[in-house]
Structures are given as C-alpha cells and as structure tokens.
Specification:
The protein is mostly helical. It folds into two domains: about 5-340, Amino acid/polyamine transporter I (Up-down Bundle), CATH 1.20.1740; about 365-445, no CATH class. The protein contains 21 helices and no strands. It has helices spanning about 5-20, 25-35, 40-65, 70-75, 80-95, 100-110, 120-140, 145-170, 185, 190-200, 200-210, 210-220, 225-255, 265-280, 280-315, 320-335, 340-365, 375-395, 400, 405-415, 425-445. Helix 2 (about 25-35) packs across helix 13, helix 12 (about 210-220) packs across helix 13 (about 225-255) and helix 17 (about 340-365) packs antiparallel against helix 18 (about 375-395). The chain is globular. The relative contact order is 0.17. Pfam families: Branch_AA_trans. Its main location: membrane. This is Branched-chain amino acid transport system carrier protein. It is found in: Cell membrane.
Length: about 450
C-alpha cells in the first residue's frame, strides 16, 4: 500500500499553503496589527482561530469524511442543500469575490501608486486583463498545479515576503505596547480578530480545496481511502503552521509601523507604506512582486477548484476548460469594480456562509456519535441558517443596513440572540438546533 513520504507530504502542504495564502492573507493581518496596536496579541489570537484553525479543520473534515469533495459532504444535509451550499461557497471564494480580489489587491499594492484619476481605471483594466490571462494559462493545465504552485510560485513568494518581514522586524518602527488601539479594538479585540479572520475566506477555501488536495495525493500513487485521509490531514497541519507563523509576523509588522505611520485605509496601503519606509523606491518593486505572486497562485488554485467542481456538479454541461475560461472572464469584470466594493459586498455573504461552514465541520467531526443521521444535520443547519441571515443583514453596506426596515430587524435580533452585537448571533441557535436534532433522532428511534 502506497504511503506518502515526508518529502511528498511537504510538497502537498506547500501546494495547499500556496492556494490558501493570497490576497486577504496579507492585507487583513497587517491592517489588523495597525488598528489593534497594544491589543494586537488578543486580536491575533482570535484571527488565528478563524484564519488558521477553521481552515485546518475544514481540510481535516474533508479528509476524515473520505468524501471526494464538498458536494458529497454537504449533501449529508440533503441533496438540494448540498447543491445550493456548494455552488454558493465556490462562487463566493471564486469569481464573485475572492478571485477578483486577487487582481485588485495586486494592482492596489503594486501599481496604483503610479497612476491617478482616469488612468487608475484604465490601469486596473489592463493589469487585471494580463493577470487573468496568466491565471487562465496555468489553470488550463490543472495536472501541473502541484508543480506550478508547490515548486515554483510558492517558494518565490516566501523569499520576497521573507525579505520584507525580516527587514521590518529587525528594525522596528515602534514599540507595540505604546501604540493605542483603534476604537473597535479597545474592548473585545479578541472577537474583532475572530471576525477579521472571516475576511481571509480560508475556512471556506479549506472545504473547497479538498478536491484538489485529494487529486494531488492520488496523483502521487495513493489510492487507499484511509491513507488519503491521513495524508490530507498531515498536509493541512504543515500548511497551517506556516500560515500561523506568517500571520503573527505580519501582524507584528503592522502594529510596529504605527510608530511612524497613521493607520492606513486598508492593508494594501499599509504594506506599501512599510515597504517604502524600509526599502525606498525598491520597496514598491519588492512588494509588487510579493503580492502579485501571492495572489496569482491563489487565483490559479481557486479557478482550478471551481472549474473542477462545476464540471462535476453539471456532468452534462460545459467542460473544465470552458468553466475555467468563464470564471476568469467573470472575475476580470468584477475585479474592475474596485477593491473597496468587493470587500464591502463580500462581508455580508461571509457572515452568512461562515456559520454554515463551521457547523458542517462540527457535524462532520461528530458524525459517528449520532450515526450520521440526516435529521441532526437538518435541524442544526436550519437553525444556523436562519440566525446567520441576521448577521448577513447587519453586515450589509451602510447605505443598505441603515434603512429603517433592516435596522429594526437587526436591532430585534440583537435583543433576542446572545453575542449578536459581536457578530456571533448564530452560535446559540446552532447549538439549539443540534440539541433538538439529537432529541428528535432519539424520539424517532424509540417510536
């Protein structure tokens, strides 16, 4: 029976890390560090739970379930739910939000500084066109994804990022303990960090990338389901440890930068400030290369995962090559809406999807305790989904969420649902749904 050796596990882990670590993984922790200031360690602890812990559990859940992908896993709730959840999750981490964000972050950090006014719109269009042309080139060769990401793009990214982080941490711009936190991090920095980890979308990606990891492991000759599961978990652990280390270092770098800079409007600007301070004009080049490689490899992984999944969801429909091409074109169009618009509209969707993903992971790990009974899945996910709608409404852009009708709904939810103000109003309903599901299962078995 074929087993992966340590070198092969590290190669798969490198590929998984490369697909995980992209746009949001750089801009959100550095911004969080600037805003959290002296409370950055509490914020970082929360961020690591949702930004590293949940992705690891997602990869592990798919591995131990011995399912081939998210569709099979989520269909434990029901076939229609499985199709709905799988499509929504892949579109969210794919062409609607995460993939376009890869291009806009690359442009914002690396190119935007030399354009202005009307040139900004044209510059973004040209850059995103070239970016997605390159993404499509790599994506149309999915059999080589482990080589491209694991052996080429990922090492390049780590080298350039390492140069920037090492320089910043060896010559700190400020003392973290002396940096006052922003208002949202003065109280409850831990919970703010938890929500900030949502923005990476990695818990969703952990469920989505499973199909790519499993195919890569099979491509190395492993066929036995139990061994595939073990190899998947091992690769997830290695990639998560590396992610956690980089998150902490980047967060520290952001907090220290407050010694000489005010908080930037977004993480892209913060990175540009830091790189310019330590390396001058060369800093812009180092940062542009680092961010573009990071975003490119993630976009390739996402296009590949989305294309493979939709080809499987609709077997009589378009081929993988057509899906990959369509997703690249759609991502290009949405990318040209700009980074601020993408972030503003992605957060409400994430506030709805994350609770569903978390509870699917929880149920997968505890499946054997209730025999995988669909009743438990359905009660739990139903209660979770209803409560998550309120978090979705609360996170809508200000112009929408401030309307009288939505404000009345969210204010009522804040009264009825514990932790709603912190963005976790779904937790108690999810637990209630699980308890009711277990009770109904037991009642039905005794009848």
């Amino acid at each position: 029976m074929k087993k992966l050796n340590m070198r092969e596990i590290i190669l798969v882990a490198s590929m998984l890390f490369g697909m995980f670590f992209g746009a949001g993984n750089l801009i959100f922790p550095v911004s969080m560090g600037q805003l959290a200031g002296s409370n950055m360690w509490q914020a970082a602890a929360g961020f690591l739970i949702t930004g590293v812990g949940l992705p690891l559990l997602g990869v592990a859940a798919l591995g131990i379930s011995r399912q081939d992908g998210l569709l099979e896993l989520s269909s434990r709730v029901g076939k229609r739910y499985g199709l709905f959840f799988t499509c929504l999750l892949y579109l969210t981490i794919g062409p609607f939000f995460a993939i376009p964000r890869c291009a806009t972050v690359s442009y914002t950090v690396g190119v935007e500084g030399i354009t202005s006014g009307a040139a900004h719109t044209a510059g973004l269009a040209v850059f995103s066109f070239l970016f997605f042309a390159l993404v499509l080139f790599f994506s149309l060769r999915p059999g080589e994804i482990m080589t491209w990401i694991g052996k080429v793009l990922n090492p390049l990214f780590l080298i350039f990022l390492g140069i920037l982080v090492f320089r910043a941490l060896t010559s700190p711009a400020g003392v973290i303990s002396e940096i006052p936190p922003a208002a949202q991090y003065e109280q409850g920095a831990f919970f703010t960090g938890l929500l900030e980890g949502y923005n990476t979308m990695d818990a969703l990606a952990g469920l989505a990338f499973g199909i790519v990891v499993i195919e890569a492991i099979r491509g190395l000759g492993v066929e036995e389901p139990g061994e595939i599961a073990k190899s998947t978990v091992k690769a997830g652990v290695f990639s998560s440890l590396l992610m956690a280390l980089i998150y902490v270092l980047v967060t520290v770098m952001g907090a220290q930068s407050r010694g000489i800079f005010a908080s930037a409007e977004n993480g892209g600007e913060a990175l540009a400030q830091i790189a310019g301070h330590y390396f001058g004009p060369a800093g812009a080049v180092i940062l542009a290369v680092t961010v573009t490689i990071a975003c490119l490899k993630t976009a390739v992984g996402l296009i590949t995962s989305c294309g493979r999944t939709f080809e499987k969801l609709f077997p009589g429909g378009p081929s993988y090559r057509i899906w990959a091409s369509v997703f690249c074109v759609l991502s290009f169009l949405i990318a040209n809406l700009g980074l601020d618009a993408i972030i503003a509209y992605s957060m409400p969707v994430l506030m709805f999807l994350y609770p569903l993903a978390v509870m699917l992971i929880v149920l997968t790990f505890t499946d054997r305790f209730f025999g995988g009974d669909r009743i438990v899945y359905q009660w739990t996910m139903s209660f979770t989904a209803v409560a998550a709608v309120f978090d979705f409404l609360r996170a809508l852009p200000e112009g929408i969420s401030s309307s009288e009708m939505i404000r009345n709904i969210t204010e009522s939810a804040a009264v009825l649902l514990p932790f709603s103000e912190q963005g976790f109003g779904w937790v108690c309903p999810a637990i209630a749904g699980l308890v009711i599901g277990l009770a109904v299962r037991r009642f039905c078995r005794e009848m």
